[in-house]
Amino acid sequence: MRDFRIRILFRVILLGAMLLLEVFMFSRPNMIFAAGLCTLIVLFQMWEIYRFTSQTNRKLTRFLESVRYSDFISGFAADNKLGKSFKDLNEAFNEVLEAFRKARSEKEENWQYLNTVVQQVRTGIISFDTDGNVQLMNANAKRFVNEANLKNINELEEKNPKLYASLIEVQSGKGTLYKTNEFLLTIQATELRIRGNTVKLVTMQNIQTELQKQELEAWQNLTRVLRHEIMNSITPISSLTSTLREILDHELIKKENEYELKADAADDLREGLSTIESRSKGLIKFIDAYREYTSLPQPKMKSVLLKELIDKTAQFMRQGLKKTTIDFSSSCSSDYLTVQADAEMIEQVLINLVKNAMESLLQNGSGKIELNGKYVDQSIIIEVIDNGPGIIPEAINRIFVPFFTTKKTGSGIGLALSRQIMQMHNGSLTVESEPDVRTVFTLRF
After folding, report:
1. CA 408 to CA 400: how far, in whole Å?
2. Number of neighbouring beta carbons within 10 Å of residue 158
């Protein structure tokens, strides 16, 4: 009787016997009342068979509801006594529930791990949906926005409208800057689709400390160069001044109301004054270069055809290149590419770079310069390429430092000015060099 099938068979046989007994009773007039009672018993047996056989459906329904409502605590074992098939079914249900239980536990652990990482990173992270509902906000983001319990991003509109505008207006894949007295934040955003909803994930990184370090390093480099250049002029001037004073003290002879100076002493005096004059002019020239570097005008931006920039620069340089054996070529990948720029300032940058390439190639019998404009990786770039001696690795990181130069007659501000101009255009100027093979200066807009 422990097997489910035996129980069903027993109930069916008992039901059949009751039906035969009921037919027999209805055939006897004196047993009509007993036949009625027998009918009730048959109906009860039929209901019992239905209830007994529907246990599997109830079990399946209960299992599905456990999965639906994430109720993985309860198990299935009460009807193992109904036979091996029920026992196997219960074990299968319990194994599935255990797998779900482990999966949910791992999911919770992963979420806790990820949340801990998000909370610990120095970058502020905040995400919100199209309605502005904040879904994720770590500790640094709370510090940057100065709100501990921000439920909706629109709450910032009145409290901090400038930051609110930065967070809302920053486009996916792009960035913007937001500055306060305490922070200088670089804000970047990306958009995600989660369960059919658009979520904007914004990261905020405080670059104030790093920027101050870079600024201090830049000033230290500049001060070092300034000190070097000024001392190169002041030291000989000071020394010569002392020497000339000694000459006047010892060689100048007073005779009545006049002073006489020997010819050799006069020549020494004249030579010393000439040297002082030369060094003074050099110092004035250096100061003028510094003033030029620190007083660049703001660019007047307008849409400029890239091809026009390339062609004007090439036309200007070809006249001087005719006197050399340098092979010069220029190209632009499209006649319709445009940049927002001050044309005159960018032309000056290109002229400086081409001139530098020319000077490096004067001793090269097979020199070649290329000036190319093209569209690469969603940016417009201009390349100045030459096959000259290039830049040694020790100097390549310093060539953009103001007043640093590897040329005997250079002022050391050409490349510094060029990079400053590109920064004023929200662009960049970079260099790659393999000595005696290829040097590439790249303007990126």
Report:
1. 17
2. 8
